[in-house]
Amino acid sequence: MNYDFKKIGGVALVAVIVLAAFYLYDSGPDQDISEALAENTELSSLLLALEASGLMDGLDPGTDYTIFAPTNAAFTNYDSELYGGLYDDMGFLQSLLSYHVVEGKHSVADISKMGAISTIEGESIVVSTSGAVQVNGSIISADSQMECKNGYIIPVGEVLIPPTVEETYIDMTIVDAAGREVYIKKVPERIVTLASSATETLYAINAGDLLVGRDKYSVYPEEAQQLPNVGSGSALALEETLNLNPDLVITWYFSTTAIESLEQNGITVLAIGPSSVQGVLDLITLFGEICGHSADAEAIVGDMQSTIDNITSYVASIPAEDKVKVFYELSTNFKTVNKSTFTGQLMEMAGGINIAGEEGTTYPMLSSEWIIDQDPDVIVVVSYGVSLDEVKARDGWDSIGAVINDKVYSIESNLVSATPRMVLGLEQFAKWFYPEYFV
Amino acid sequence: MELQVSSLDFGYFTKNVLKNISFTARSGEVFGIVGPNGSGKTTLLKCLRMALVPKRGKIKLDGEDITKWDRTEIAKYFGVVPQNTNISFPFTVLEIVMMGRIPHLGRMQSEGKEDIEIVKRAMKLTAISDLYYRYASNLSGGEVQRVIIARALAQQPKILLLDEPTSNLDINHQFETMKLIRYLAKKENMIVVIISHDLNLSMRYCDNLLLLDGGKVFSAGRPEDVLTSENIRKVYGVEARIDYNTAIKSNQITLIDVVE
Amino acid sequence: MQDISKYYSGVRHKRLMLLVGLSIILFFVAVVGFMVGPVFISPGVVLKILASQIPKLGDGIVQTWPNTYNTIVLDVRLPRVIVGMLVGIGLSVAGCGMQGLFRNPMASPYVSGISSGGAFGAALAVNIGAIYYLVPLFAFVFSSATVFLVYTISRVRGKVSMETLLLSGIAVASFFSALVSLMMYLSAEKLESIVFWMMGGFWASGWDEVIILLPFLVLCIPIYVFLSRDLNALLLGEQDAQDLGINVEATKRFILVLTALLVGACVAVSGTIGFVGLIIPHITRIIVGPDHKVLIPACIFTGGIFMILTDIIARMIIQPSELPVGIITSLFGVPFFLYLLRRRKTSMGW
Fold first, then answer.
1. What is the dotted CATH code of the domain comprising A321-433?
2. What angle do CA C326, C330, C332 make, to 5 degrees?
3. Could you give the CA distance from residue C315 to residue C327 in angstroms, rounded to a whole number?
């Protein structure tokens, strides 16, 4: 019986080897990629797409390719809302499909040894082998790979999105300053800004090239003045704005009419209204994300934060009684700001005690005699306000410390408003308030 | 005193409203101006006191040309009772009558005893003495008319110009007013020039009449010579009968019908 | 029956007492104006500070208060109260004159477009970046020029119809308002101050303003008193006035020139404070009657009283912040005016 068993085992082994060899010879390389695709009902969507895009005919018959083949299910799950319909734009379809094609004959086993693979368009697919083998996060397995005469077809469960496409799709919902939910799908390419602060911020994060229009107040930086002027948020030239074909309009939160009329015309509108120093920093970050300039935004925010920290840490060390009293004047005589305003916050941050800080009205108009009685150490007048000589010449003001010590200054209005330049304003304040420390 | 008007023309632009008017009115005489609406009566009265400047012609007071006089000078000689004065402000009667003293007072001169006496007399003549403290704005039309006459009298004018002073009055006041006017002419020796619509009152109380038609003098002279049935027919287009009425010792006009 | 002479002197006496009474009120209101402010200084100290300025009398006063109080009382409150008083006087007398001239209750010193002209001048000065003391100059020049423009427009064959004047005044005012709006639209924040200027107020009034205003008042107000008989006669109608020996056209010219100078100066120093020139003459007329011989002097006092009082409220109500006084003049003046209007015994005349 022992003998018999050996014999049968030997025959069986031979038979298996022969069969296996036969099988291997038979099922493998006698088909090419297109034939294999055409036979596989699971990949019919891909085939359709490849044929429609003309990519199939574009492949060199003498070259080997590895194709990551999204299954029909993957195509069903493809987010056409986000990226746009596959067949809406042939160029897009081609570049999307090209991202699935790699030169050379690579099995899953081969791939698992690479860190990244370069597609025929030169873009790279990330390979990860923690757990199952994944390309761009989609699992591939040797079980389902198909070897063809001229390469491999490796089914994937998702349509692979090229990083250049992926980056432009930000898919964000923002609650804006007007309390509206604004959905932003992809990085805008044609921005019209109706808020000077936004214009300035966009240029600061190197996203100025995205701008196609501006409001009349957006005059900084100088390049902004080259852009077409569409009036202002309160008096918008709607036709001109629409004619610029913007994909995003940024406006102040209070320009409600503009927001409404733009929305009625199907334009995405983002309302802003930073009212604090933190708000400005957050806005810069937000704009960085929206415009795909996060790195620039972070760099700026970092710089600003360190300037702010530098000043506030010194200010924190000054005893309350040693802090300077400040009177800040707007365009009209004795009209000032309370602590709720942006300028008020900057002054406070720079260690000044705003004599009108606690007033109930946002822009109180103080009595001259009260200012004299408060005896501010520093007087700052906004650039478009009255002249410094006029301030010094006011009746009775010659008894004010700031006038006696010639600490009456004029500040550029844009340095004390909600723009990236606010740190310059903050520094300026700090230098005027504590010249002995901030040289 | 003699008010002499000669060849007076007045008009706006090229159209003449008054054409070649000449007449003379003398102190102590009530001089009436009659004529249909639009015949230029009120315009003539305005020209007399230079409220409207005539295009041509002369207005002389005792031979002196008044066209060169200033307003104050004219107001010292001419007292005016316009057709209707609308006193809406709460001035007292006394205040209104006292305004008649304006031409006689220097700018900063305040009213003296003499002025008050003159005003009192004017009010007495017009029988409004006991209304002096009342607001003129609360008075009846007739009372206001008398207040205005009193104001004109307070000017101590040599010439009194009245534009239909009786039109707003009830009949007893009409008589009183006409009697006052005659009194002023006869006793105060004024020249009284009066416009009236009432042909009978004109016939009875005027010494001389000027009948205007279309800005021209149609007829002038004694009332009975001016207001003839023929003239009335021609100027007014109304058939009238004129009888002598012994009760009033004057001609009486009875208007019969419009001429067909 | 009471004797007319007695009655007449009685009326005169009553009027004199009324004027004396009003002048005393004005004096006290002014003193209150010096006393109160967002900085509390006791009345005694205020009086001492004031007294110390009087030669001889002040020598014996020893200063027991900080120097700032001197500054506040003498350099801030004193000129401010005086400017308030002068502007109140100017506007109410000018308003009184315009109402008499137009025989129209809606007439105010601003009817001939003077305020819009002034606003335009000020806006222009601010817009071309003129030095600050040019702003009142521009305001003055343009407000006065507006009056003459309107006068010239409405003059036909040597005579000015009041209706035409009123209408062309409104038209010219709208025109200038539009120009101001246009400038504000074109140059955003720079002209924000114009808004406040148009609301009017005394928060920036100092001795300079007193010096600017005083000559105009000293020059113009006596002429109004001079013209009071003419204005009385004009209330009866232009023809009646002329028959009483008034040179009506000359009076119109005079009043308009006076308005231009007086109101132009007021507008230049304090902006266009509404309501005072319209309502104060009415209120005064309700109190003293229509006779300009007493009405104009009375307007001097009531205008001063009203303006000082409203300015006290304007600077005290949310102190140390201030409200534009124009808001207060209407907010407090209108109910008072309506109250008087309801309970008056005689017709106002219009």
1. 3.40.50.1980
2. 115
3. 12
Q: Distance between CA atoms of C18 and C15, rounded to whole angstroms?
A: 5
Residue type, C303: G
pLDDT at C1: 46
| A412: chain C residues, CB-CB within 8 Å | none
CB C4 to CB B74 under 8 A?
no
Q: Going by beta carbons, is chain B in contact with chain A, meaning 3 or more pairs sit under 8 Å apart?
A: no
Which CATH code is given to the segment(s) A170-299? Answer: 3.40.50.1980
Using the Cβ of C204 and the Cβ atoms of chain A, whether some distance falls under 8 Å is answered with: yes
Q: Is 90 exceeded by the pLDDT of residue B33?
A: yes
Instruction: Supply the CATH number for residue B204's domain.
Output: 3.40.50.300
* C83 within a domain of the structure (yes/no): yes
Q: For an interface test with A, which of C67, C69, C71 has the most A Cβ atoms less than 10 Å from its Cβ?
A: C71
The SS3 call for residue C212 is helix
Q: What stretches of A331-367 show up as alpha helix (H) in DSSP? A: 342-349
pTM of the model: 0.79
Phi, psi of B239 (to 5 degrees): -75, 125
Give the pLDDT confidence score for residue A424 in this predicted structure.
92
Per-window interface: C 60-99 vs A, CB < 8 A: 67-68, 71-72, 74-77, 79-80
Q: Which residues of A touch C196 (CB under 8 A)?
A: 332, 335, 365
Size of interface A-C (CB pairs under 8 A): 100
Q: Does B49 contact C243 at a Cβ distance shorter than 8 Å?
A: yes
Domain that holds residue B129: 2-258
Residues from chain B that touch C2, judged by Cβ atoms under 8 A, are 133
- A107 three-class SS: coil
Q: Is residue C203 part of a domain?
A: yes
Query: ipTM of this model?
Result: 0.89
Write a three-state SS string for A24-84. HHHHCCCCCHHHHHHHCHHHHHHHHHHHHHCHHHHCCCCCCEEEEEECHHHHHHCCHHHHC
State the nearest Cα–Cα gap between C180 and chain A, in angstroms: 17
C291 touches chain B (CB under 8 A): yes
SS3 A373: helix
Please write the tens of the pLDDT for every residue from A262-287: 999 999 999 998 888 898 999 999 99
Q: Which residues of chain C have pLDDT under 50?
A: 1
CATH class of A31-161: mainly beta
Q: How many separate domains does chain C show?
A: 1
Domains A170-299 and A321-433 share a fold: yes
> Which residue of B lies nearest to C344 if distances are taken between CA atoms?
B90
As for how many domains chain B has, the answer is: 1
Domain boundaries, chain A: 1-26, 31-161, 170-299, 321-433
C73: DSSP letter: I
Q: C103 to chain B, minimum CA–CA distance in Å?
A: 10
CB contact under 8 A, C245 and B103: yes
Taking one residue from B and the other from C, the number of pairs with CB-CB distance under 8 angstroms is 98
CATH number of the CATH domain containing C316:
1.10.3470.10
Q: Which of residues 9-28 of C touch B (CB under 8 A)?
A: 11
Structure tokens at B243: 């009888």
* A333-346: pLDDT as tens digits: 888 999 988 899 99
Q: Say whether B103 and C232 touch across the interface (CB within 8 A).
A: no
Could you list the beta-strand ranges (E) of chain B.
Answer: 2-12, 15-26, 29-34, 56-61, 64-65, 78-81, 159-163, 191-195, 208-213, 216-221, 238-245, 250-258
Taking an 8 Å cut-off on Cβ atoms, the answer to whether C346 and B102 are in contact is no
Provide the CB-side half-sphere exposure for B107 (13 A, CA): 7
Residue C265 lies in domain: 41-343
C249 interfaces chain B, CB cutoff of 8 Å: no
| Residue C73, domain member (yes or no) | yes
Taking alpha carbons only, the member of C92, C30, C307, C82 closest to residue C220 is C92
Q: Which residue of C has its CA nearest to A390?
A: C132
